[in-house]
Amino acid sequence: MFGSFEKDAHGTRHVLHAPVHYEDTDFSGFVYHANYLKFAERGRSNFLNLAGVTHQQLLKYEPQLAFVIAHMEMDFMAPGRVEDLLLVETVFTGLRGARLEAEQRISRSDATLWESQMVVAMVDLDGRPRRMPKDIAAQITPHLGASFLNRKAEK
Asked: How many other C-beta atoms lie within 10 A of the C-beta of residue 63?
């Protein structure tokens, strides 16, 4: 349900298997482009949940806090199709102040379909950036990993 952590010499990455349902596709039978963002959100949220950070926990702070995407770059590389089983990989590569840097890749057994690099920001519910509380940072920090998108150039 929440996927799992995989740890190696590069740190931690979160893996989540997600089936493509008919509702995830457009008239062509390919995964609708915006739905890659939904699969990616599930990966990030489930990563945080496994690390012990929940959205309900963030709402208990004063002021109440939330994570938002501050910046995202993405590449669509190949189409997913109905009944594919996707692998959503997430790695958080850095944490500083209000910023959490992340990378994600969505693939199926034979191809990488989508990749993204992003900055996630901690904000209050008025949208103002807020330094990440020390206890939240302490829950995330042990699960940071090295960039896997940059490593593909090493192969």
From this structure: 11
pLDDT at residue number 151: 61
Phi-psi region of 11 (alpha: psi -120 to 50; beta: other; left: phi over 0): left
Is residue 26 flagged as an active site residue? yes
Number of other residues whose CB lies within 10 A of the CB of residue 117 = 17
Task: Kindly name the residue from 24, 26, 124, 135 that is annotated as catalytic.
Answer: 26
pTM: 0.92
Residue 18 has pLDDT above 60, yes or no: yes
Q: In what order do the strands lie in the sheet with 85-96?
A: 4-8, 11-19, 85-96, 99-108, 111-124, 65-76
- Note the helical H segments in 27-105: 33-50, 55-58
pLDDT at 153 over 70: no
Span 19-33, average pLDDT: 96
Instruction: Give the 3-state secondary structure of residue 117.
Output: strand
What are the structural domains of the chain? 4-149 (3.10.129.10)
